[in-house]
Design goal:
Helix content: 40-55%
Largest sheet: 3 strands, antiparallel
Radius of gyration: 15 Å
Number of helices: 4
Strand content: 15-25%
Number of strands: 5
Shape: globular
Oligomer: single chain
Structural class: alpha+beta
Order of helices and strands: HEEEHEHEH
Strand order of the largest sheet: 3-5-4
Distance between the termini: 31 Å
Length: 103
């Protein structure tokens, strides 16, 4: 991965991404945005891989009890897929296209 993507991932994990906007190059705090809710970790990893292959940094947010108890189904196994707010629309578009491709 490039240094830019690694840097974005690091700041995304801290909860806020600062990105330069197109209006004057100001730096604006951008919280991560949920673009997908996976039923379990395996599905979340597939979605994460797809988005990262397009250059979009991704953070996964788990329910605290799910991984501890090894749950693979149900509400406690859900995983939220988060991306920087400026890339959320692009990420959703990529995921929608991938969904249309499946039989």
């Amino acid at each position: 991965m490039s240094a830019l993507v690694l840097g974005l991932l690091g700041t995304l994990r801290r909860g806020i991404v600062h990105v330069a906007t197109r209006t004057g190059g100001r730096r604006v705090p951008m919280p991560p945005v949920e673009v997908y809710r996976a039923a379990n970790e395996m599905e979340a990893q597939v979605v994460k891989g797809r988005l990262e292959s397009e250059g979009i940094p991704v953070m996964l947010r788990y329910e605290a009890a799910g991984p501890v108890f090894g749950l693979a189904v149900g509400a406690l196994a859900e995983v939220r897929v988060l991306v920087p707010a400026l890339l959320a629309e692009q990420a959703r578009r990529i995921l929608d296209e991938a969904e249309d491709e499946q039989p």
